[in-house]
Amino acid sequence: MSLPDGVQRRPFDGEDVLATEGQPVYGEPAADGWRKWDARRSKLGAMLKTGMDTGLAGGETVLYLGAAAGTTVSHVADFAGATYAVEFAARPARDLLDAAEPRGNLFPLLKDARKPETYAHVVEPVDVLIQDVATRGQAKVALANRQFLGDEGRLLLAVKARSEDVARDPDEVFDEVLETLRDGYEVLETRSLKPFHEDHLGVVATPRTDGQ
Amino acid sequence: MTDETVDAGWFQGIDPGDLDAARIAIEEGQADEPDDWPTMAVASGFADDEDEYYERLHEATMAATRAAVQEAESADDKQLIHAIRAMDDCDRTANELAERVAEWAGSIREDAGTGVEYARELADEADSEGDDRLVSLARRVRDLDDEAADLRTHVQQTAPEVAPNLAALAGPVLAARLIALAGGLKELARKPAGTVQVLGAEEALFAHLRGRAPSPKHGVIFTHEAVQGTHPENRGSAARALAGKLAIAARVDYYSGERKPELDEELADRIERIQARDTQ
Question: In angstroms, what separates the C-alpha of A178 from chain B's closest C-alpha?
Fold first, then answer.
């Protein structure tokens, strides 16, 4: 599986790990301008590490939903083009601002991913939609934001079973989320993000264009 | 939102140098669909080329998000503390005045009742023969009680925004009380679980420290069903387990703000195991 331009496997502490070129954000190890991208701290990092075909080549425009403190989205902005980072909670967004400060292509937005109309006046159509929101109704969020994706675009989704329902069997939750997702997307690949993230499913999908 | 701003890019009608206007447009603007804003901005003369557009966008989104974060943070825990204290004041005062109403009514009416409920009955009466001062006082009680109810609704709405995990575990009202007793979410997040356990039981705690009383098992968290619903013999254990989870929830809320539903589950498991001892 090829990595996007701007992402490399590099040795850190004797271990080959993913790394991107950019300013450190959260105290992660860095060397020669490259900083470690820890798959345990990043669902997208885990998707790349487990060899999922994300379709990322580098340089694409990205809408990132659930940017939180900016851990992952800062790595994305290191290899992508214009990167729009949406986060709903104010406290982590404060750290997101620090990550965005030195990155001219990273645009932080304190907005609710369930209400795309509140940021559609800022965000342009994108090549890639990355979603990591810890909320119930993760498939609905992906459907509501489908309008940002071109026909050839990719949705990279990390489904967190516990955000849908803590008590239910994760596999059941995943099936249900995927079923809803198919209303607007064709699912290309799914993979468990173990051992990096428990009860998370990585999903690669593309917008459905038939019979819409 | 006026029609003109719908479906227009954030930069529409904005002077490129006016960061304040840009911030407001990003915060408050809307569009039904995304559009090729960079190209449109260049075409409209907002920026000379895409690079310049992105530079301005970066500047504007940074300013807008910084302002929104600041606003959200100042609107949070301190505001919640005022609301819960006001709610308690209204409740207490309504009850005190209701006692006064009942005592007064008892002196002139045979069918006088007690409590806020009776004051409400009286308040709904049309102005009548000679006791309009009493009815007027009863109306103050009713209004205070209404205000307390409105404040409670407000606390229930805002506590989950300020402290999502703490509100989920403790319930929004108790969460607000804990934050108020600690003096803020930050202050609560820095307290050890043992302190959280006895917040609101300071009098008993100091009596204990002076050697005059046994150590208190719980403060305001006594109102939580995990404590109340547990057999008295095991209430100390339940209170300690609950306080431990609440302390963790407050820290997650303060330091990350992310909702962690697994905390609810862990607490439910612990309490279930403690309560299972009741029947043994």
Answer: 21
ipTM at complex level = 0.93
Q: Give me B198's structure tokens.
A: 């006895």
Reading chain A (212 residues) residue by residue, the pLDDT tens digits are 689 999 999 999 888 899 999 999 988 999 999 999 999 999 999 999 999 999 999 999 999 999 999 999 999 999 999 999 999 988 789 899 999 999 999 999 999 999 999 999 999 999 999 999 988 899 999 999 999 999 999 999 999 998 898 889 999 999 999 999 999 999 999 999 999 999 999 999 999 987 54
If DSSP codes are grouped into helix, strand and coil, which group holds residue A16? strand
Single pTM value for the model? 0.65
Query: What is the distance in angstroms between the Cα of B22 and the nearest Cα belonging to chain A?
Result: 11
Q: Is A69 on the interface with B (CB under 8 A)?
A: yes
Beta-carbon separation of A101 and B257 below 8 A: no
Give the dihedral sign, CA B144/B145/B146/B149.
positive
Provide, as residue numbers in chain A, all residues whose Cβ is less than 8 Å from the Cβ of B74. none
Using alpha carbons, select from A53, A58, A49, A50 the residue that is nearest to residue A17: A49
